[in-house]
Amino acid sequence: MNSASKDKKYKGLKAVAKSFSYAAEGLSSASRSERNLKVHLLIMPMIVGTGFFFSISRYEWLVVILVIGGMIALELMNTAVERVVDLVTDQYHPLAKQAKDIAAAAVLVYAITAIVIGVMIFVPKIIDSIGL
Questions:
Q1: Which of 34, 60, 75, 82 is labelled catalytic?
Q2: 48 exposed, middle or buried (CB, 10 Å; 0-12, 13-18, 19+)?
């Protein structure tokens, strides 16, 4: 491999590392400032612990991981939409309100979906464990 190829590869790896760094910075910033994201991040270990406690199946784990990841990702996207709208205008505008409300509604729909999935996975296990 010649020197130019090594430099190009190094720059590519450096750019990837930098993009991961920016993403981590965004997650850190949002987790410090966003109340709803804090709630989700607090609930996440409880759900994982419950999964271990009830020895959920591999497929149930896949669903739980997808739901948790999707919830965090959607909360981050909602935060990004709010930030962009706030950057564009500091005055009330009906379209700005709609953008924020619609992004929040997407989170709400997913949260309801996550609750339904959680109930479907965990309630039968809870019922079995208490002998009903």
A1: 75
A2: middle
